[in-house]
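Contributing new complexes? Match this layout with adenosine-5'-triphosphate.
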Amino acid sequence: MIQTNGLTKRYPRVTALDGLTIDIRAGVTGLVGANGAGKSTLIKILLGLAPATEGTASVLGLDSARDGAAIRAQVGYMPEHDCLPPDVSATEFVVHMAAMSGLPRTAARERTADTLRHVGLFEERYRPMGGYSTGMKQRVKLAQALVHDPKLVLLDEPTNGLDPVGRDEMLGLIRRIHSEFGISVLVTSHLLRELERTSDHIVVIDGGSLLRSQTTASFVEATASLAIEVTDSDTHPDGAAALAAALAERGVATTPAPGRQLRLEIADETVYDTVRDAVNDLGLGLVRMERGRHEIAEVFRSAAPAGVGGQAGDGTSVEVTR
Ligand SMILES: Nc1ncnc2c1ncn2[C@@H]1O[C@H](COP(=O)(O)OP(=O)(O)OP(=O)(O)O)[C@@H](O)[C@H]1O
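Output block (do not edit by hand):
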């Protein structure tokens, strides 16, 4: 679907993409990176809306630098920022976008009605968009990306500004774009967890460079860890420290985590038995042994040069910060 080779984009004061080489197949792919990682820049180059400084990009086998118009005819694009004219209705707008994509007027009207229904806009589609909620605007932006029945859609931060319910609905819609209509999706977010739920494949970029590209299943596996909490006892007034030492003797490294917990990598399934036996031998109580996940910040650190380490987080926050 998408290939880039050594793709670089330099602005006068910042390098937005730095030798990025990726190969994205059919399906739903999540592109995750902190704000400023280069996600929007990549999308603009893929669509032929901005030139690369160096390197090449192709979409559906077409060259982004040369065939931008042909690419845009077959690809839907949902931009990140608010871009809807406030004084026209969703129906008028999406019909217009469908006609711009080359659909005859009648087909444009029919496709618009179907697509707006599909994204969950009903009576309100006849009202001016200036009065819409953020969630409704995101749905219109998604509808205009889908109306010409593209082979691929590029969705730039589609959950931006949505409340938790709105996010869930949008993620469900994105999943169905592929499962029901067979349209491939590249969706960006700075939230790893939402992309894990939605995508078959995850690409992580930082500072315009590739950090990881792998299937979601292997990504989640590779970033899995175990959080352990134990009681203290008279013999071991600091139970966590005693367990850390006992596990180290058994060849299992741990790091301290918030809430007097320990965290360790799940190298293989035998680690559960090792922990159980160590806790039992020390005569401690096992309060918690829970599979957690790293924060995305740790994924970033684990891809950084050796020596850049850090303490494990609580496994619940996955928002990217720089
Ligand atoms: N037209 C421009 N001129 C100069 N610098 C730019 C321009 N567009 C983007 N940048 C810079 O390039 C870097 C990458 O920006 P980009 O918008 O691609 O990141 P992003 O990952 O999409 O982040 P966000 O989610 O915040 O949009 C940022 O440092 C940004 O400030």
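Reviewers usually confirm one structural detail per submission. For this one: The CA atoms of residues 301 and 308 lie 6 Å apart.
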